[in-house]
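so my prof wants the structure for this chain in the tokens format not the other one, which i didnt know existed until like an hour ago. anyway here's the sequence
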Amino acid sequence: MSKKGQTTTTTYMDWNDFISIITRLEKDENYRFCLLISIGVFTGLRISDLLSLRYSDLLTKETFSIRERKTKKQRSIKVNKDLREIVQRIVQKSNVTDLNEQIFINRFKSKTIDISYVNVKLKEIIKYYRIKLDGNVSTHTFRKTLGRRVMEVNNYSNESLVLLMELFGHSSMSITKRYLGIREQEIHDVYDSLTF
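here's what i got, hopefully its the right format
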């Protein structure tokens, strides 16, 4: 949590670091955070929406719908095949028998895990696995990692910005660029382009 008057910037993970961390979390049997990070990045959902998901949302259909808590908008999400495979493996490894069970339930099975707990654990995980980030880690890192990956594989095209703007529910491309830190990166690239 930031101090009063202090600004913090949540950053994204490099795609290779994302793949590395979920692979290592699964290997180390930290299934909850393997799923949280995987589902967060592959869907781009906010943490409040992630915490409401059930295994059946990801395993029984190709797409699922969710009413976003923040925007109250209905959103349809296609389940990526790689994400489905991760969820299937972890369901088997953790002996989940009820697919209608919420994925991110606390250890007492009384309610979902707390967002502040998630943010603390994410910082610990990033430190433990020695992932270098250019900013702070929080649950927004999931959405930003998705956004940066989409921009990267589409050569930072305006079309990908338009799609991300809609996916994130932003009102303009400039908001999406600022959210992803694209504008700052473009300005830094101007400095790098100067040569003798």
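also thought this was worth mentioning. Residues 1-7 have pLDDT under 50 and may be disordered.
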